[in-house]
Amino acid sequence: TAAVAASLSQNPVTALAALLHTLIVRERQPWQSSPLDVRFAENTHNVERNAADFDVTKAAGVLKEADALMAALPGESSDLFAHLLAMSVPDLLGLLARSVARAYSVQSPDPLRKHPRGGFDLAQGIESALGVDMADWWYPSIECYLGHVPKSKMVEAVSECLGAQAAQPIEKMKKADAIAATASLLDGRRWLPSTLQPYPLPVLREEFEDNGQEEDEDEQG
User: Which of 51, 62, 153 is nearest to 105 (CA)?
Assistant: First the structure.
């Protein structure tokens, strides 16, 4: 065991192929054993259960494209491992990214995320590193937002985008008219509710960048 483990530590491509083999086989045939004690949970079904119309979202489409990578892989376990060993590193990493993506899940009934006690919030780190802009993935449609919030939220959204004056007429409208008017006013504005807005950059990173710029300017001077 120690000799093989040491050899794996010196052969990252074989280690990656072995990891992917374990993940893929356990996804297809959970009862199969593996010398690697690792397993990724499939959490996409939680999103499908909680998100209305998930199947027609952009995110669902991208995830289905990633799943298509699996369709080209051999079904037999021995053939699968040989196939993985022959794949390029970028293709192996693409498969790994698909497995990581399917395992990712951050869901809570609370409107504000609770940060780990004294620890690093990996979820926030991942979102920041990816540069996720939810306006690329979501918009306040009648079906997924405007039809479910009070009129005060519509006024708030229009005020943020176009100013309080543009939002004033909505206050006097009937609910159905207010929904339609708000949908029209927000169309293409890339407005996001606070819970979907990006995280601010950490203060330490901003200070580091500022100090780096000052040092560069001093060196140039």
Answer: 51
CA distances from 3 to 15, 17, 147, 188 (A): 14, 18, 61, 59
- Give 209's Cβ-side CA count (13 Å radius): 6
CA dihedral 31, 32, 34, 40 (to 10 degrees): -50
Mean pLDDT of 4-30: 94
SS3 content of the chain, % helix, strand, coil (to 5): 65, 0, 35
Residue 30 tokens, joined = 């959970």
Distance CA 200, CA 189 (A): 21
Place of tokens 């037999």: 76
**pLDDT tens digits for range 52-64:** 788 888 999 999 9
**Residues near 175 by Cβ (< 8 Å), separated by ≥ 6?**
151
- For 80-116, the DSSP string reads HHHHHHHS-HHHHHHHHHHHHHHH-----SSSSPPPP
